[in-house]
Structures are given as C-alpha cells and as structure tokens.
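Example 3.2
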Amino acid sequence: MKLVCGIDEAGRGPLAGPVTAAAVILNNDFPVHLLDDSKKLTPRERLSASRIIMERAISYGIGWAWPEEIDRINILNATLRAMYRAYIQITVEPHIVLVDGNKVPSLPHANCRAIVKGDSKIPAIQAASILAKQIRDSWMIRYSWIERNYGFDEHKGYPTLRHRKLCRSLGLSSIHRKSFKCEC
C-alpha cells in the first residue's frame, strides 16, 4: 500500500485568528465519498467527516501559526510553518507528501509535491482541508466566548462587512492580524 500524506490549510484570508494546517494519511478503505474541498461542505458535513477522519485515518497532525507570527513573517511563511508543524506530528512515514497549492513547506521528506487545487482532486488533501477548517472554526467559536463583541462565532475572523465594521468601532482584538488591512 502506497501511503500518501495530504496537507492543506485553513485561515489564510481572515483578519483574525490563527492559520491552521492539517496533514493526513488515509487508509485504502477510507470512505472517500465523504470527502470534498472543505469549502464545499456544510458545517454539519465537515463536522461529521472530521470525526470519521480522526477515527479512521492512519495518522494525522494539526499545526498552527498565530497572529503575532503571521504579522512577523507574513501569511505565506506562517502557512508553510503551520504545514510543517502538522507534518511532524504524523506518526507514520508516508511514501509521498502532496500539498494543496503551488508551494511546499520545507519538510524532512524528499518526495513532496505541490498540487494546485489538490483539495478538489486528492482524497488525502481533501481530508486535510476538512480537518484544518473544522479545527480552526471550532477554535474561533470557542474564542468568541472570550471576545464576545466581535462575532467570531459567526464569521470565524473572515473579512465580512459586519466584522470590518466591528473592527472599526471597537478597534482590533488581541487575535487580530495587525499586518492585515481592516477597511470598511
């Protein structure tokens, strides 16, 4: 059996919160019909799929890069670090690593390739996409219990009109990315 590790991220575009990456190795009998690009699934479908991924994957890892780090090294480099952090948590050595997008993080694995739109083609990347988005969204919902006025549970930090207006009226919270423009 050829072990494929898929890597993807969630949270590059938001004004607030971490960028989150996941690395996933699926077994051959995984029910791939449950998978798709995380953005195409409903929140309920993502939650259900993420639970099955965590139960049935051969291995998975989650990596984070926090707003201060994003501000310091930029979103691309922070994303690549989060991907690296996710990858080093997996417990099985894959034969190949496939990363969604056009860049790959520096990994301790020689056989690593970028796949543009991999989250719509490769089951392991789709699983990583689902985990990264589900886990990041859950973190943003929980954080909304701390910073109640920003509506993080609704927009998850993405630059909706309401979120941008709240930033303008309240100022930035401790998890806002200071290097991102928050214009209304």
